[in-house]
Amino acid sequence: MKLNASQFVEISYTTGEHLASYASKFQPLKDEAYWGHYNGPRIVCDELKRRGKGSMEYRLQPGPVNPEVLTQQETHRSKAIWDGDDKGSLRCRSHLAMHKGFLDLKGASLRIGWLTETFSGLLEQVNEQVLHQYVRAYLLILMATVMFPDKSGNDIQVVYLPLLRDLNAIDDFSWGSAVLATLYRNLCRSSNMKASDIGGPLILLQLWAWEWITIARPIVTGPKNPPLIQGPYPLGSQHQLRVDSLGRRWLSVHRRRPQGTTITTLLGYRDALDNMRPDQFVWQPYPQAIFSFLPEACYNDSGEWSVVSPMICFDIVEWHLPNRVARQFGWKQNIPEPADTEPKLHKMDKRGAHSRNWADYHSAYLAMWFRRYQFRFLGVEDNSDMGYNDPYMVWYQDRTRRFVSPNFQQAYQAPLGATAYLAHGFAEVHRTCNTDIQVMPQEVPPHYRNIMSNIRDNTSQSLEHVGYSHLLQQFHQPTQETQVEEQHEDRGHGSTMQESTAEDDETLQVFRRRSRRTNTSMSPINEQGTPEPSKGKRIWSRLRRKKKT
Torsions phi, psi of 238, nearest 5? Predict the structure, then answer.
């Protein structure tokens, strides 16, 4: 009699009841470093969604669960990507200097080409007024191409020109906060699902990504010439001590592509960010010791790095909130206070308001800026790793978007050791193909040899790309007896039966070694209990014996 144990289990303890209770709360974590400490038996299951009749699928929830922080998700680019309406990469226009003719004003914008042509060469003997004109032109070009570039690609707004009237007063402006506010505003607008272009100081974003995120970033090479200091010099080759900024070390002459990097596509980077580990983000990339290599202008205003204040650049007002990234200062990250980013400010621009006095219009924010040192954020020092059950992490996980790429776009994440296992398999294929090419008779059609050569070369390139080229060991050269035998065959001399038998035995041993490396369930077994060579191997062996006879 078969006993049905389910009748003795109360309904509240059944698996179905547990799945129904915990399914809505389960959010899978791909990285074990974020797993919480196990404190008792728990049965959890991901949400199941039915697709058609009789089919089920597992689907991750990208977040956020609580929309109080990310309030624009309905129009955000990440939602369109998740829903399958991917617009592809954003277009960043090159800033071209192609223009000939007189002064060319387009509304409130000036052509960069006119500036570069008019102020392309400076005579040796000029008065101070002309020299200042060239300096202002150079600064305008710098603003148009590096600091405040727009999406047009070849214009600069003349609203910046009055700031250059007095060259001695340029230091009185906070250029860094204006550039950062411009970057924030352009990132905000380009995140809309309808956007196709992006502007702003993207070189700053690129440098930030290389400094903070280790995914596929280049490697900074050592100095080519000995620096004028003692000890290690971490800023790359040809870096001028206390003259060049930190970003100069990422120049193309200072860096190289890391070996084994295979992320080259947009989907690849998205998938890498979705699966990023805690050790792939550097919270403090600027140690105090590195300041001694930099000019004082890079850290003179370090007191402003921790102020909670608006950043203003004419029509743009963006908030600087260091209390939300306290870990970059080596402080403990607590749950931050609610912040109103004021969406109405993000809809504002200079179009149709070129004559507006932005200082009066944003007078309230200017007043907060002038009192910014009263709102410095000071945290508690804590450089320890933050656990999954930390109160901030619990708060953050419900309010962030955890994934960008949907399930059908996410690449398979191999478990630990699988890459090495596959690499050894590729090396085995490489050795097998190379052995086949060496023992392949001349009667074999050339395209067979080409196929084996292509397989061998492709596996070799794949192993080099993933950093396992050391598995490609040097193959054994033909023995002296084999070389003598081949020389006799080339001269037209016949081989003796003893030589042919010895060579057949050696070839058979090679085939047997290869057969033992294959799956024995897929090969026929002979009377001795060992796998026989495959059909292709037997054909080559018969062709070689036929040639001998």
Answer: 60, 25
The DSSP result for 477-519, as a single string, is PPPHHHHHHHHHHHTTPPPPHHHHHHHHHHHHHHHHHHHHHS-
Yes or no: say if 64 and 400 are a contact pair by the CB < 8 Å rule.
yes
DSSP-derived 3-state class of residue 197: strand
Both ends of the chain: CA-CA distance in Å? Answer: 72
> What is the C-alpha to C-alpha distance for residues 452 and 463, in angstroms, rounded to an integer?
17
Distance set, CA 149 to CA 28, 109, 200, 358, 371 (Å): 41, 12, 5, 20, 29
Spatial neighbors of 131 by CB under 8 A, at least 6 apart, are 122
Query: In this structure, what are the phi and psi dihedrals at residue 67, rounded to the nearest 5 degrees?
Result: -90, 20
**Exposed/middle/buried for residue 200 (C-beta within 10 Å: 0-12, 13-18, 19+):** buried
- Chain segment 58-86, per-residue pLDDT in tens: 456 788 989 999 988 999 999 998 888 88
Per-residue pLDDT reduced to its tens digit, 125-173: 889 999 999 999 999 999 988 999 988 777 888 889 999 999 999 989 9
Quick one: CA dihedral 384, 385, 386, 389, positive or negative? negative
* Closest alpha carbon to 507 in 474, 537, 534, 467: 537
Give the torsion through C-alpha atoms of 16, 17, 18, 22, to 10 deg: 110
Q: Which helix (H) or strand (E) holds 393?
A: helix 391-397
Residue-level pLDDT at 486 = 41
List 192's β-bridge partners, or say none.
Answer: 76
- The model's pTM: 0.65
> By the 8 A CB rule, do 196 and 190 touch?
no
Q: Choose among 190, 180, 142, 140: nearest CA to 160.
A: 140
